[in-house]
Automatic annotation (TrEMBL):
Domain OmpR/PhoB-type intervals: 145-244
InterPro entries referenced in this protein's UniProt entry, alphabetically: CheY-like_superfamily (IPR011006), OmpR/PhoB-type_DNA-bd (IPR001867), Sig_transdc_resp-reg_receiver (IPR001789), WalR-like (IPR039420), WH-like_DNA-bd_sf (IPR036388)
Name of the protein this chain belongs to: Response regulator
Binding region for DNA: 145-244
Annotated PROSITE patterns: OMPR_PHOB, RESPONSE_REGULATORY
Modified residues (4-aspartylphosphate): D65
Entry keyword annotation includes NAD: no
């Protein structure tokens, strides 16, 4: 069985990146810049090859182009999400909001439109790896220790585990980070700007569609009735609250 993202994050050695892009020039540029920053790099030009390499090499982050010759990148994301929480950063020339939402809804952690600055991309890679690292932040999150129990689910902040109905709930690193911030501030309004800055970084404060997509995913996974949420409350135009 492939090991989990958490197990991969605790291994020694350089951070491993899987580059998935069928454009040879772009792939070469990514490999060159990643290796110059001391990352270990694997490369795939097709979706099927990417899924095989992910299972064999256990990358810490995936850089994924959506326009692959054998399958759409969104299908690659869904394939990965069937067994791993590895951060996925989409690199795509597709600029429409619907394309971004589709990729995020499938489980991507970030979306970068081509052309992009290499320094910005590397900053996003570092941020994605930090979010995925279970030991990347001290303690158990901002102001939180122990277990938070609701009528519908249980969150163990220190172990970074979520349970519902006696079963573990699989969250991506980004979903976990968003959940952790909200449940560590029970009953308090957490602004859109604060959530975007803390989860994705200071360059994302206008990407409110990210919040809409990820809050919908948390509700689907944790709320008894996602269309009438009891725990994850939207304050329109302002932010979100977590209620026990």
């Amino acid at each position: 069985m492939p090991r989990s993202t958490g197990e991969a994050a605790r291994r020694t050695g350089p951070t491993r990146v899987l580059v998935v892009d069928d454009e040879a020039q772009m792939a070469r540029a990514l490999v060159m810049n990643l290796k110059a920053r001391h990352y270990a790099v694997d490369v795939a030009a097709e979706g099927g090859q990417a899924l095989r390499l992910a299972a064999e090499r256990h990358p810490d982050v995936v850089l994924l182009d959506l326009g692959l010759p054998d399958m759409d990148g969104v299908e690659v994301i869904r394939g990965l999400r069937g067994w791993t929480r590895v951060p996925v950063i989409v690199l795509s020339a597709r600029h429409s909001s619907d394309e971004k939402v589709s990729a995020l809804d499938a489980g991507a952690d970030d979306y970068v439109t081509k052309p992009f600055g290499m320094d910005e991309l590397m900053a996003r890679v570092r941020a994605a790896v930090r979010r995925a690292d279970p030991e990347g932040e001290p303690g158990s999150g901002p102001g939180g220790e122990g277990v938070v129990e609701t009528a519908d689910f249980t969150v163990d902040l220190r172990a970074k585990k979520v349970g519902r109905g006696g079963q573990d709930v699989r969250l991506t690193p980004t979903e976990w980070h968003l959940l952790e911030i909200l449940i560590s501030n029970p009953g308090r309004l957490v602004s859109q700007k604060q959530l975007l800055q803390e989860v994705w970084g200071p360059t994302y404060t206008r990407e409110t569609n990210y919040l809409r997509v990820y809050m919908a995913q948390l509700r689907r996974k944790l709320e008894a009735d996602p269309s009438h949420p009891r725990h994850f409350i939207t304050e329109p135009g302002m932010g979100y609250r977590f209620e026990l």
